[in-house]
Structures are given as structure tokens and as C-alpha cells.
Amino acid sequence: MDSKRIDIGIGIILCLLSVAIYLYAEQYAGRGVNSYGPNFFPQALSFMLFLAAVGLIIQALRGKALKNLEAMNKPGLLRTAVTLLIATAYVLLMNVLGFYLATGLFLFVVMTYLGQKKLWIRVLVSVLVATAVYSLFHYFLKIPLPEGIFYTPV
After folding, report:
1. Following DSSP, what letter does each residue of 120-143 receive, concatenated?
2. 107 contact partners, CB below 8 Å, separation of at least 6
3. Which parts of the chain fold into alpha helices (H)?
4. Where are the domains of the chain?
5. Quick one: pLDDT at residue 43?
6. In sequence order, what are the residues at sequence separation of 6 or more whose Cβ sits closer than 8 angstroms to the Cβ of residue 145?
7. CA distance 53 to 24
8. Best label site of 43, 45, 57, 71, fewest CB within 10 Å?
9. Dihedral sign, Cα of residue 48, residue 51, residue 55, residue 61
10. What pLDDT, in 10s, does the model give residues 75-89?
11. Tens-place pLDDT, residues 12-52
12. CA distances to 36, 55, 75, 79, 152 from 42, in Å
């Protein structure tokens, strides 16, 4: 199967998935703390997915698809599978450890697995990204995040 048809097929599937996510998020109607409701972020992400999928289809139709996709890269496939398993563990541990700690740990483990050698970079990026994302959702957007077992109210 040539890569042009694969890209068009994947693009169509992603378009359909984005529409399904958008429509599913409609059930989260209401107003949140801010002027937008809980359906805003899922719908915004589904819209961006739709745009990316349309871009993939357009690139394929213009002949810009990758030429050789006949052989599978087994190490890359294994790396992807393990990363997905780590991400699944992250989602499951988030309610136990809390968003901040689970996110920092997830980033550290993924960077270690994917080959980042320098410990200080792994620690710094994990702390900075977890802090930035937590601050954005908790303080700016006022969206509650999982606190975990180590949370002590002030």
C-alpha cells in the first residue's frame, strides 16, 4: 500500500475521531469558573486535531507523502509501545500521587527511557514543566487537578 493512500486514510480517520470528540464534549455543558465551560478544552483540542488531519490529507493529495513506508521500524514500535505503557501508568497514578508529582515523575521516567543522559536536565525539565502546567491550570484557569495522597489542605 502506498503512503499517499495511507496518509489520506489516516487523515480521514482522524477527522472522524475529532468530530466524535467534539460532539462527545458537548455533554459537558455549563459554565466553569471562567467564562468558558468544561467542554472548551476537549473541543479546542479536537478542532486542532481536525486541522492537523486536514493538513495531512492535503499534503498527501499534493504528493508530499513519505515515499518508503514498506518496512516497519521494530525498535521504534517497541519504544512507542513502552512509552504508551508509561503514559497509561501516569494516568492511573495521577489520582494516587496527585497531578504535580505524577507529572514530574512521568516526564523524568520518559526522558530517561528515551535516552536523555544528563540527570540535571531530566530533573530541571520535569520540575519546570510540571510547575508551569500546574500553575496554568490551578491558578490561572482555576481548574481543579488531582491532589493525591500527599495533599494536606492549608
Report:
1. HHHHHHHHHHHHHHHHIIIIIS--
2. 122, 125, 126, 129, 130
3. 3-25, 40-61, 74-97, 99-113, 119-135
4. 1-71, 72-154
5. 86
6. 98, 99, 100, 134, 137, 138
7. 19
8. 71
9. positive
10. 888 888 999 999 999
11. 999 999 999 988 888 776 655 556 666 778 888 999 999 99
12. 12, 20, 32, 27, 30
Hunting for cell 496518509 — which residue is that? 7
Residue 19 C-alpha cell reads as 468530530
Q: Which amino acid is at 152?
A: T
Q: What is the dihedral of CA 97, 43, 25, 8, to 10 degrees?
A: -100
Q: How many residues does the chain have?
A: 154
